[in-house]
Amino acid sequence: MRSVRTHADQLGLAYEHFRGGRRWTEAQLRAAVAAACEWGEVAAALGLEDGRAVTTIKGHAARLGLNVRHLTQRAELGPPHHPDATRLSRAGSLLAAAWYALCGYDVAWPLEPSRYDLVVRRAGIMRRVQVKTTTSRRNGHWQVFLSTTHRERTTYDPDDVDEFFIISGDLACYVIPLEAVGGLHAIHLTAYERYRVVGFDQGLGVREMTAWSV
């Protein structure tokens, strides 16, 4: 295709009206880019509704060397500052790292594969931390699994993990040493209240932190 275009350029032939498998021509793309203020308008002008179309037309614009500095990417965001508990598992390690950092620990992220999620250190003592989250209730109590989920559940070896940092669905936090739960696949957190720490549900107890919104 590139050689054909080269020959066409040498012969002074126009080829922008060719579409290939597209529903728009390069000339239409040039016009849409010039007239639009953001990429969504370019897609609409070309009759494209699929959100992935923006990525495609941005690629074509780059190939054609079009000036797109005046275009912005419209952000389709929901209402701000509304955490969703269904995302807790994704945020778990980040929340745990923040908690340890706020408590004065140095925090490191191990390379994969590791049986622990974080390495924390304070006063010369190092701990390997496995982070667990739960949004599951059983008989009115938070239940959390302390075993891996690869094919069949396997408990953690005391040689691999020193403690669990657990975050429940209401953002309560627990730091439970492995010795207290070794060999167990699942626990109810109500039985481990003595390991509950000041957590996100209590504003971390940091007097200077008066609001969570940014």
Unreliable residue runs: 1-9, 13-20, 208-214
Mass-distribution shape = elongated
Gap between N and C termini = 51 Å
Radius of gyration: 27 Å
User: In order across it, which strands form the biggest sheet?
Assistant: 1-2-3-8-9-11
Count of individual helical segments: 6
SSE ordering:
HHHHHEEEEEEEEEHEE
Summarize model confidence as the mean pLDDT.
Answer: 83
Give the quaternary arrangement of the chains: single chain
Helix proportion range? 25-40%
Largest sheet: 6 strands, mixed
Describe the structure.
Helix 3 (39-45) packs across helix 4. The chain is built from six helices and eleven strands. It has helices at 2-11, 26-35, 39-45, 53-64, 88-102, 178-181, and strands at 106-108, 118-122, 125-133, 136-138, 141-145, 147-148, 154-155, 163-167, 173-177, 186-188, 196-197. Residues 1-9, 13-20 and 208-214 have low confidence and may be disordered. With 214 residues, it is an alpha+beta fold. A hairpin with a 2-residue loop joins strand 2 and strand 3. The strands form three sheets. It has a six-stranded mixed β-sheet. The chain has a three-stranded antiparallel β-sheet with strand order 4-5-10, with no helix packed on it. The protein has a two-stranded antiparallel ribbon with strand order 6-7.
